Amino acid sequence: MIVHTKFSFNEMVKIANSCDYSYDGLFFYAVKTTGIFCRPSCKSRSPNKENITFFLTSEEAKRAGFRPCKRCQPDLMKFDPKMDLINDTKAYIQGHYKEKFTLQQLAQNIGISPYYLGRLFKEYTARTPRAYLESIRVRRAVHLLKSTDLSIIDICYEVGFQSASSFYHAFQKQTQHTPQQYRKEISYDL
């Protein structure tokens, strides 16, 4: 079963293989050969792509006959007030990724100190709020490179980067390609 999310099958496979906590709750993946389902952040061995299926909820995975992983316990919903702060921070960043804002402004919006927000966010997501913001901007840039004819510099500013050099640096760091190389590669794939 492929779920209807904002991510493609290949993107969800990549997310599951990266063990990224920031995607927990957005979907679950199950491994056909083991009969187990996990959260995207599970540290278990990465399964082969052909053995993965995705679900929006843990209940859907259970109904399909998969059992929860004992390692990541995807069926347990735990109340964690710190996680609410993380989710509020992610929501703010996702809603304002095009804007220029500081950690101070972000923390003020969330209602905690910048130092505590930075430390807490890194503890829960394994990256800084700035790195999370850059990943959203780069993902959006990838989408625009695939789906529009906008110039690379227009895409840079459209997704919220303040300079071309910071855009190129973040894009290459996350995709291992320059924006030009990426656009050329996807045009060859078409």
Question: Could you walk me through the main structural features you see in this protein, from its secondary elements to its overall organization?
Answer:
The protein is α+β, with helices and mostly antiparallel strands and 190 residues long. It folds into two domains: 9-68, DNA Methylphosphotriester Repair Domain (3-Layer(aba) Sandwich); 79-190, Arc Repressor Mutant, subunit A (Orthogonal Bundle). It contains nine helices and four strands. GO terms for molecular function: DNA-binding transcription factor activity; methyltransferase activity; sequence-specific DNA binding; zinc ion binding. Its cofactor is Zn(2+). Residues 87-185 form the HTH araC/xylS-type domain.
Rg for CA atoms: 18 Å
Shape: flat
Please give the largest β-sheet: 4 strands, mixed
**Helix segment count?**
9
CATH topology of the largest domain: Arc Repressor Mutant, subunit A
Neighbour order of strands in the largest sheet: 3-1-2-4
| Mean pLDDT across all amino acids | 88
CATH class of the largest domain: Mainly Alpha
Total domain modules? 2
Number of strands: 4
C-alpha end-to-end distance: 26 Å
H/E element order: HEEEHEHHHHHHH
Poorly predicted runs are none
Q: Strand percentage, roughly?
A: 5-15%
Structural class: alpha+beta
- Looking at CATH, the homologous superfamily of the largest domain is Homeodomain-like
- Architecture per CATH nomenclature, i.e. the level-2 architecture of the largest domain: Orthogonal Bundle
